[in-house]
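anyone seen this seq b4? input:
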Amino acid sequence: MSVTPADRKPIVSAEDFDLSDYDFWARPMRERERAFELLRGLDRPAFYEEMEISFAPKGPGYYALVKHADILEASRTPEVFCSGDGGATNIPDMPPEFTEYFGSMINMDDPRHARLRRIVSRAFTPKMIKQFEADVDAAAVRIVDDLIAAGPGCDFVTEVAARLPLKIICDMMGIPEKDYGSVFDRSNTILGGFDPEYGGDDMTTVAEKLLTAGLELQQLVQDLAAYRAEHPTDDLTSSLVSANIDGEKLTMQELGSFFILLVVAGNETTRNAISYGLRLLTQHPDQRALLLSDLDGHLPGAVEEIVRLASPVNFMRRKVTRDHEMNGQLYRRGQKVVLYYWAANRDETVFPDPYRFDVTRSPNPHVGFGGPGPHFCLGAHLARREITVMFRELLRRVPRIEGGRPERLYSSFINGIKHMNCEF
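predicted toks r here
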């Protein structure tokens, strides 16, 4: 049963909230920030019981890693903090076929992870991305053209932020424009969780919708891959179908799962960063003015700061493979830890005045694309490019555009904005 705002206990200490309680993720942002401040102030990581769900056994609980140093160390030692045993994108243990279906190599460890990333990376090179740079520029121009034609009051998320990454990912894969809407809707369903707009509050219904959406996305790219095997072009699907590293190729199952990962990670996270970026510029007119004073000079720093504060992915989970001491805490084999990137990006010991939006912040060692190590975001370069191009085009042509109050996604996994009106 949901807790109404009036019924919620004020957050005064770390005992006043539970990260496993979905109602925590419906709290206002300032309350969530306060909660993680309290957790970072503890001598040892807080431990939480797992939520019971109908399609997975209740697990032993988990430690919440909220400090920047802990997340860096756990990310650098994947042989201790593994991703493949039960999955990285969920806290409960899921069957391997489920985790690999939806998370692809995110939910794998070496040597399987290294094999898949090696194959995919060969087709996902900077050269491959560079050939799409002109397409990114052209897409941003068209999106701003349409925004100006539509006039103020439109939904910035659906009309601007979502369109660029969706088009680029689909174009890279060779997905035709007629399927854009379908891809967008299904990626929303996969990451929508218990948000009533996309999933619902019934566990069985959510699971069914998620599986159906994944199956439809996988079928879409597998049909395209079968055609590209006989009729190759210069798109990413053709490259992935033909990629052969030391005699190894992607199976159709692996290709389908990678597409789900690519379209969800490459679409949802970048659109949320762009949406948060406009909101941050609206809330901090001094930083907007500074950025506009030297757009090319300050934009790279602004993009990093947007990604830090947006932190589109709240967490990833790891399981401990052997007894291990880290920063004074002993973790036992089989225990779980959850890496809260969003909290680490506000760590006071690393980021002075961490809630301040500062387009000149340097250094800015955020973990918005994940921590260092084998699971660092494969598409970070492309995401940075898309965010940069979108804001360059917006701020040159609509410099006074502002974002209204965001309607946030109800999710513990994705720090998302579903809708946000804009004025200019």
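DSSP finds 16 helices and eleven strands in the chain. The radius of gyration is 21 Å. kinda curious what u guys think
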